[in-house]
Amino acid sequence: MKTILALSLAFLSFAPREGQAAELNAGIAVTEITPPVGYRMCGYFYERLSTGVHDPLQAKALYLQQGAEQAALVFCDLIGVPQTVTDQARVMAGRETGIPATNILVAATHSHTGPLYFDALRTFLHQRAADRNGKDPQETADYASVLSGKLADAVSAAKKAARPVQCEAGVTRQTGLSFNRRFHMKDGTVVFNPGKLNPNIVRPAGPIDPEIGIVFFRGSEQRHLLASLTVFALHLDTLGGTEYGADYPFYLERSLRERPGHNFISIFGAGTCGDINHIDVTTDRPQKGGEETLRIGNALAETVLKAVPGLKPADKPSLGVRYATVFAALQEFSEGQIARARERMRLIGTKELSFLEQVEAYKVMDVQELRARFGPKLPMEVQVFRLDDDTAIVGLPGEVFVELGLAIKHASPFRTTLVIELCNNDIGYVPTKKAFAEGSYEVVNSRVKSGGGEILAEAALQLLRELKF
Ligand SMILES: [Zn+2]
Q1: Which of 101, 299, 328, 396 fits as disulfide partner to 90, beta carbons 3.0 to 4.6 Å?
Q2: How far is the CA of 83 from the centre of ligand 1 (A)?
């Protein structure tokens, strides 16, 4: 559990040549973050206990440095990362490495086969177990605290492993794997996941983002592949079951590494996939379980490998970081609504409430947790990392609708813009104004008011413009 695999590329010479801009250095470290078996699992609206490990959960830290600028991006095989965890990890990592906390991004990949370790559902189940048993038998470890420490350690280990690199970046297209999961129905409503071959479907209510954003990092001297970053907008909810797993990025990495000389670390960033999943409603083919996970991971790897020769080398790296905190109004509920939600939490996971009634009760309670921590305005941190004049990486909090990510990419002044969601805090779904008007699951499960998503996108564009020279 405690291993940190710091990649070491020996035999390289690092002396920067005179007259050149400072070299870009990168390091990577991987740490295992699998909780004990028996811990509650996340992803659905009922109590689900883990029974084993399909594949280990990991956090992968990428450290970047050029001249005086340092940055780190950490990706966790988790459904989300709450600000309580990321604040602590970023402060600790900053103290150990000298990287400003604002230059550290901590993201979750959104795996639905990880631990339930924060939010109102976790609070409810944890307290209920503690009330019944004196202590919660499922939480044998303080997962959140252990996680913060591991993430900070991973950043330090990645810095220690840093060496000169060259990076290359670009985008390719992947169709046939991702689908907008919201549909206009014959009765005029918009419904999420209406079911395969549902005859009442008229058309999807939104687009997908078929782009895969790719950055490869190679050791400068021998061109060894050190790491890849792949960003794709597709919910990580394909594995299911009660065994821990990283979902399709696990198979993406395994498949990429099958090639000779490809013993590198594959990092996955979740694109803006709040309304995107893998379910193809035009077929009745079963789409849950390990085979589907394998199919998606392998298909992505194949597409990524085909794109590698076309990636553009970043010959003049210019690492730069900007961040901003913007605010979205949290939704408001009356005392009566809160009391009813508190009552209804007991019925989550039963058949006594409809699915959306359960989601709403959970959401109302979660908004109360957010209000207790932040007040009526929810801070939303946006970060942008420039790799060179052509390539930038955007980090946004929450489960962001694909339309918002697309809007950022289309208006970005960079040739290649990777937009990653679920960074630094899990603020629930971030729908568009249009989706708020349409309703359905993601809107019921959102904490911000309509307009919060557009504020995020505008802030990201402002930072991208500031970083473009
Ligand atoms: Zn989700």
Answers
A1: 101
A2: 17
Q: What is the three-class DSSP state of 402?
A: helix
Answer yes or no: are the C-beta atoms of 26 and 217 closer than 8 Å: yes
Q: What is the mean pLDDT of the segment spanning 275-287?
A: 95
**How far is Cα 62 from Cα 60, in angstroms, rounded to an integer?**
7
Show the CA angle centred on residue 372, arms to residues 370 and 374, nearest 5°.
Answer: 60
Q: Ligand 1 centroid vs 463 CA: distance in angstroms?
A: 26
Q: Which of 313, 295, 368 is nearest to 124 (CA)?
A: 368
CA of residue 384 to ligand 1 center, whole Å: 23
Residue 20 has what pLDDT?
Answer: 54
State the pLDDT confidence band at 221, using cuts at 50, 70 and 90: confident
Ligand 1 centre distance from Cα of residue 203 (Å): 21
Could you report the per-residue pLDDT of 418-452, keeping only the tens digit for each?
Answer: 999 999 999 999 999 999 999 999 999 999 999 99
Alpha helices in 246-327 (DSSP H): 248-256, 290-307
Q: Which of 169, 241, 218, 193 is nearest to 389 (CA)?
A: 169
pLDDT at 429: 98
Cα 110 to ligand 1 centroid, rounded to whole Å? 7
pLDDT value of residue 288: 82
Banded model confidence at residue 9, pLDDT cuts 50, 70, 90: very low
pLDDT per position as a tens digit, 196-220: 999 999 999 999 999 999 999 999 8
The domain ranges of the chain are 22-325+376-467, 331-374
Q: Cα–Cα distances in Å, from 438 out to 92, 184, 190, 191?
A: 42, 9, 6, 9
Which residues does residue 381 pair with via DSSP β-bridges, in sequence order?
Answer: 325
Share the mean pLDDT of the chain.
94
**Is there a contact between 392 and 385 (Cβ–Cβ < 8 Å)?**
yes
Ligand 1 centroid to residue 116 C-alpha, Å:
13
CA of 229 to the centre of ligand 1 (A): 21
